[in-house]
Design a protein that fits this description.
single chain, mainly beta, OB fold (Dihydrolipoamide Acetyltransferase, E2P), 6-stranded antiparallel sheet, 5-stranded antiparallel sheet, 54% strand, flat
Length: 187
């Protein structure tokens, strides 16, 4: 059993007969009244995101997880296939267990979290950023850039990202997987 002081991003907890992953949290100590923790929880089974508030010191049941490296092989529809990099066993996961499936490129190494009680896969943790090639974007027009002008671009996985006007087709860009936004041009 853990308490609200143990809450951190990525922690998996058992709540309302389901397993949730904490995606955001905020410790709040108001001037009047007791402290509490505001959380955003994502259901592992359904993918639904809920907001919940725990009072300070509240007991939470954490789920013991094990993380293993897997390589993304391919997807067929909404099923994504991964291979363990240690023993080459393959698993198939539904699209709902992935945080950013549109940014997943074949051969990408991800971390898959497993419940240690029944060895079932819980969620897939993407790397912090991915480097993808721009396959289509309109040319930028010079002169109409007051500040921070962006244009839509399609990358090799099919995802659409807003990029600065100087990015052209064929450029490789670094994308933040958490927000799905452009970070910088890759070398």
């Amino acid at each position: 059993m853990a308490t609200t002081s143990d809450i951190r991003k990525g922690l998996c907890i058992r709540y309302n007969n389901d397993i949730f992953k904490i995606i955001e949290f905020l410790h709040v100590k108001p001037g009047k009244g007791p402290a509490f923790v505001r959380t955003k929880l994502k259901s592992i089974s359904t993918g639904k995101v809920i907001d919940n508030t725990f009072s300070a010191g509240h007991k939470i049941e954490d789920v013991r997880i094990e993380t293993r490296n897997y390589q993304f092989l391919y997807n067929d529809g909404s099923t994504y296939h991964f291979m363990n990099t240690d023993d080459y066993n393959q698993i198939a996961l539904q699209e709902g267990t992935l945080d950013a499936p549109q940014l997943l490129k074949e051969g990408e190494i991800v971390k898959v979290m497993f419940n240690t009680e029944d060895s079932s896969p819980l969620t897939v943790e993407m790397p912090a950023s991915v480097v993808l090639e721009v396959t289509h974007t309109e040319p930028g027009v010079k002169g109409n850039t007051a500040t921070n002008a962006t244009k839509p671009a399609t990358v090799e996985t099919g995802a659409r990202v807003k990029v600065p006007l100087f990015i052209n087709e064929g450029d490789r860009i670094k994308i933040d997987t958490e927000k799905g936004s452009y970070m910088e041009r890759a070398k």
